[in-house]
Design a protein that fits this description.
Length: 227
């Protein structure tokens, strides 16, 4: 007669199936962020920091999928080896996520300073690579802004100001010189802050779920050992 609690066994299986689904969602969203045209346009202005964070989330999603598979197989087959692999892997992921979440909280107030520094280093804009200029023009069109720090003067001269900065004088967002009054700095800062909040939320939200997984797996591991 098996000494394994059937309710615990199948609860562990369901948990790991949902865990695997979470991994698929994280992987899918992270890949979308990585290849999204909108994301690429904005990430051109903040170096590789955000790209590294997205790449880490792709790795985390992939590992969670593998761990979820190990957990499902370990629960159904009552395999102590698979359950132990699941426990160790999940514990390491939990530690990394908590570290990433704490770093995200610490870094969040510094985003505006970091973006400001990057944007000032880009001036003047007219001699930047074509992909950077194209990205900024798209942002200017969509967000009704001009320049990244000081407005139209960021482009060097008024002759260098692109069409994407020009606006209808009747529009409240239009300045007296026929270009948008607002700079795009606020748009970029808000974009990075919002995406960092998503990363922090995923890190701490999954950490709470993973604690249950650690408890389930170790309890089932001990019960199988007592059979």
């Amino acid at each position: 007669m098996s000494g394994v609690n059937k309710c615990l066994k199948y609860s562990m299986f369901v948990f790991n199936f949902l865990f695997w689904v979470c991994g698929c969602i994280i992987l899918g969203v992270s890949i979308w962020l990585r290849v999204s045209k909108d994301a690429q346009e904005k990430m051109n202005f903040q170096g590789s920091g955000m790209l590294v964070a997205v790449d880490v989330m792709i790795a985390v999603g992939s590992i969670i999928m593998v761990l979820g598979f190990f957990g499902c197989c370990g629960a159904i087959k009552e395999s102590r080896c698979l359950l132990l692999l699941f426990f160790i892997g999940l514990f390491l992921i939990l530690a990394l996520q908590i570290t990433a979440g704490i770093l995200g909280v610490v870094y969040k107030p510094k985003i505006e300073e970091s973006v400001n520094k990057t944007l000032h280093e880009m001036l003047p804009l007219h001699n930047k690579p074509a992909e950077v200029i194209n990205s900024l023009e798209t942002i200017q069109n969509q967000s009704k802004c001009c320049g990244v720090v000081n407005g139209a003067s960021d482009w060097g001269t008024m002759n260098a100001v692109p069409v994407s900065c020009k606006c209808n004088p009747a529009d409240s967002t239009c300045g007296t010189n026929g270009v948008y009054k607002e700079t795009c700095k606020t748009v970029l800062v808000d974009y990075f802050k919002n995406h960092l909040i998503i990363i922090i939320g995923i890190a701490f939200g999954l950490a709470a779920v993973e604690l249950f997984g650690l408890g389930f797996s170790m309890t089932l591991y001990c019960q199988i050992g007592k059979k």
